[in-house]
Structure formats: C-alpha cells, structure tokens
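Input/output pair, single chain:
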Amino acid sequence: MDLSIAELLKTIILGIVEGLTEWLPVSSTGHMILVDEFIKLDVSKAFMDMFLVVIQLGAILAVVVLNFEKLNPFSSWKTKREKQLTVSLWCKVCVACVPAAVIGLMFNKYMEEHFMTAPVVAGTLIFYGIMFIWVENYNKHRRPRVRDLDHLDYRTALIIGMFQVLSLVPGTSRSGATILGGILFGASRYVAAEFTFFLAIPVMFGASALKMVKFGFHYTGEEVLILIVGMVTAFVVSILSIKFLLRYIKNNDFKAFGWYRIGLGILVIAYLLLVGDPTADY
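Output:
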C-alpha cells in the first residue's frame, strides 16, 4: 500500500472542506465539486463520485458522538418521559426523511448527470444566499413558534423534510434548505439547525450505503486509506464546525452565510467567464 504524501494531503484538505461545509449552510457538495477541480486525487472517476458522498459518514458520526445521550432512547439516565420524547424525535426524523427518500431515489441519478456542474452550483449559491438574507429580514419582527426541539410538531418536521428535497440540486446545501424551511415555518434558528443535524443521520447513512453498493466492495489498499483519512478528518472538523454554528446562532442570524454564498457564487461565475467550466466533463 503506497499512498504518497501529496495524495494524503489532498485527502486531508477534502476532509477539512467536508467537515466545515457540511453543517454550515453553504453547500458541502458545491464546495467539494469546486475544490476537486483544483485538488484532484489520483483515483478513478467512479471512486471519486463515491468518495464525495461516503466521506460524509465522518461528518455524521460527529453528530452522533456529540448528541449520543440526546439521541439514545434507552439511556438509563433518562426518565420515562424523556425516553418517550426521544422516541418521538426519531419518529419526526423518519417522517421528515420520507420526501427526500422518495424523490431522491427517483431523480438522484438524473440530478447527478445533468446538474453536477459549476454553473448550477454558482446559481444555487447565489439564489439561496439571497433567500437567507430575505428570510432573516422577513423574520425580523416575528417570534418563533417552536423554541424547543421537543415542541416541534410532525407537520413542521414534514415541511422541513420537503425543503430537504431542494438539496438534490448541487450548491443548494442540505442544511441550508432545511434550516430555511424550519425558520420560515416557525422554528427558531437553534431548533431548525439542531433538527437539521439529526435529520442528516439517516439521510446521509442511506446515501453513503447506496453509493458504496453501487461502487462495489472491491477497494485497493490506497482507496481504503483515502476513505479512512477523509472520514476521520471530516469527523474531527465537523465536531468543531457544529459547536461553532450552535454557539454562533444563539446571538447571530444567518445573513453572514447568505453574503458568503453570494460572494462565492460571483467568484465562480467570474472563473467560468475567464477560464471556462471546470466541470464540463465531470
């Protein structure tokens, strides 16, 4: 097994990008597509397609580790009522997963073949950046109806799940779409972000499993090492990213992320005009 230092560093960079952008509402897929253009791993296209999805397992494990007690309905530390609330939370997560599971299975392949491009990423970065700024202005004088995760009802959970479908388009941001949906329909920023983290667990585990099955289980030693290094890096960085976001939104809104998305989208468009589409043959 011989993985060069250069390839190892590229993998670590990709893991850092995944860990930072998976939970911040700036589109991890969009960033990974763009970063991959400049930091190309020496692997097959099929492996890279799988890697860009499976690396998210590291990010998901960060959510599980940070919230294990909250997500564990069998904890001996919980009262009967707390255990019931935990089961209810998982039921709401399952309900919210239905739209993406149904529509994602139907259109995921089409989206990957036709929308996994830099122009699409640039457009969605800018569009949802504007949406974040508009939603924050719209909500400026509104009081959140749901200020605690335990009070999130099934209807709102399903609506958030419907917004998750929007993230099938690269550059949208799964967390960004669901947070927007949560805020628009009465959840506080904190509740919307927290539910988004938990909603990602079955969604991303499912997406990763499908990708791995599709790719097959015939990995070289180098490919196994790349997967492990990428996931471990994403795990560590995700822990820091999640803690930062939850602290940040206690006293700040999402406008900064909106402006960041707009700025990045403009930079991508400028690059397209000057150099051309880096994902034309993606």
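The mean pLDDT is 89. The chain has twelve helices and no strands.
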